[in-house]
Amino acid sequence: MDRTAQLISPSAERSIAYDPPGSPPSLHVRAAKVLEGNWTGASTVPSRGLYPHQWSWDSAFIAIGLRHLSPLRAQTELETLLAAQWGDGRVPHIVFNPSVPLDAYFPSPDFWRSSTAGRTAGAPRTVQTSGIVQPPVHALAAWLVHRADPGLSRARGFLARVYPRLAAWHRYLLHRRDLGGGGLASVVHPWEQGMDNSPAWDLPLARVTPAPARSFRRADLDHGAAEDRPTDLDYGRYVRLATDYRDGGYADGTGGFAVEDPAFNALLIASEHALARIAAELGAPGTARHARAERLTEALVERLWDPASGMFLCRDLRAPAPDGRGTLIPERGVSGLIPLLLPGLPRTIVSTLLRTASGPHFGLGTTTRLLPSYDLLGEAFDPHRYWRGPAWFNTAWLVERGLRTQGELQQADALRQSVLELAGATDFAEYVDPYTGEACGATGFSWTAALALDLLHGDTTVTADMELKGGNRR
Question: Which residues form the Mannosylglycerate hydrolase MGH1-like glycoside hydrolase domain (predicted)?
Fold first, then answer.
């Protein structure tokens, strides 16, 4: 039997058609083959060459797509990641595969030293991980995976087993990472936010003394062109921040980099709503979590909404400010559009975000095929350099869901079609030129394949899967 066919669960086989003999492989079959090829037995690598371990938010997006092929494997994907959770609740951004050579990826396990440097924070002893985190998409992913096959999920006790870990993960973010005191979670390293090389980090990173270039070797340049990757100077600053965090025992609140990011917090809010649904499924009241999500939405608006920019901006907590709250970073990135996911946004803000997305800064539906990761008119815009302009499929998926949540179905349908066309045309590229759709980075990229599957087979109406709670406030 074709191993791709084995990947598809019996419940999914009833609704997914196979290609007729002799016909070109469909997008579905091609995407399934990518996910099969990147499967390691317990989780899925983002790509075999550049990213040979398990990444946190990648696995959440991958599980969302895998649910259309094998709900069991989607559940396993999340369970494997959560098994590496630290005692303080953090979910590490990398879970290392011990069979991969140390020089295949940097920073490697011997850099992070999780089991020793992270002992006070409760790092696991039986698996090596990084010490930083990534955006909290996991509860949302768990809820969607459950909805794909509720019978299987209940039979395996999937939600009952992951709920305590997800709740602990959210507690960590809401308490240990509320570094600004305003209710929002902060990131302490650009890699935590996921959009690693965004120009939004340039100002806070300028205060960081870079690690000497001779102190590390960049394995990423073995797999990608230098002009498409972060500069050596930026990488040196990333290494310095990670080194200082490690040497401080991964304690939060003491480092020189602390930023409140709109996408990170929007995903936390969406996952809070999802946790409320999971709690209700398990027979517990979810009203307190929905109420917390609404309070977080209010904090997001109060702290990160910038009417002059027409979008949400990042707040640099370490920048001097008279009120001690830090300052907003004057850079427009796609992160500032991700809060469209939230059903509780005031309608005036939604309308402004829609204008910004389709306007000259992002060009959605006019000049760009997919949303660029950074302002088209910004001085740092580069259509090919990592997170400084290229379009990514995961942010497109999030904005597509956001448009659908806000009732903008025509725009959502158009973005969905662009994602599907470009995913297929680029062999599931890591990211693309936002103007031309030219493939950049790795191909056969797992979250691109997974999210294309989700858009191909997912319901295009706002159902209980995505309508997390309520409607828009006027």
Answer: 51-448
Please return the burial class of 468, using the count of CB atoms within 10 Å of its CB with bins 0-12, 13-18 and 19+.
buried
* Res 286: pLDDT: 85
Please, are residues 389 and 434 in contact by the beta-carbon 8 Å criterion? yes
* pLDDT at residue number 222: 55
Pairing of strands 54-55, 259-260: unpaired
Q: Return the HEC string of the chain.
A: CCHHHHHCCHHHHCCCCCCCCCCCCCHHHHHHHHHHHCECCCCECCECCCECCEEHHHHHHHHHHHCCCCHHHHHHHHHHHHCCCCCCCCCCCEECCCCCCHHHCCCCHHHHCHHHHCCCCCCCCCCCECCCCCCCCHHHHHHHHHHHCHHHHHHHCHHHHHHHHHHHHHHHHHHHCCCCCCCCCEECCHHHHCCCCCHHHHHHHCCCCCCCHHHCCCHHHHCCCHHHCCCHHHHHHHHHHHHHHHHCCCCCCCCCCCEECHHHHHHHHHHHHHHHHHHHHCCCCCHHHHHHHHHHHHHHHHHHEECCCCEECCEECCCCCCCCCCEECCCCEHHHHHHHHCCCCEHHHHHHHHHHHHCCCCCECCCECCCECECCCCCCCCCCCCCCCCEEHHHHHHHHHHHHHCCCHHHHHHHHHHHHHHHHHCCCCCEECCCCCCEECCCCCHHHHHHHHHHHHCCCCCCCCCCCCCCCEC
> Residue 321: which domain range?
25-455
76 assigned to some structural domain:
yes
Is residue 424 one of the residues assigned to a domain?
yes
Q: Is residue 11 part of a domain?
A: no
Which CATH number characterizes residue 132's domain?
Answer: 1.50.10.10
Q: Is 430 a catalytic residue?
A: yes
pLDDT digits (tens, 9 = 90+) for 397-414: 999 999 999 999 999 999
187-204: buried (b, 16+ CB within 10 Å) or exposed (e) per residue? Answer: bbbbbbbbbbbbbbbbbb
Q: How many residues does the chain have?
A: 474
What does the pLDDT look like over 47-60, one tens digit per residue?
988 899 999 999 99
Whole-prediction pTM:
0.92
pLDDT score of 386 = 83
Is 248 part of a structural domain of the chain?
Answer: yes
Q: Which residues pair with 129 in a beta bridge?
A: 95
- Cα–Cα distance for residue pair 409/400, rounded to 1 Å: 9
Question: Which pLDDT value is given to residue 186?
Answer: 98
Choice among 178, 196, 306, 467 that is catalytic: 196
Query: Of these residues, 88, 252, 430, 433, which one is catalytic?
Result: 430
Domain count, the chain: 1
Q: Looking at residue 231, what is its pLDDT?
A: 75
Q: For the chain, which residues score pLDDT lower than 50?
A: 1-17, 462-474
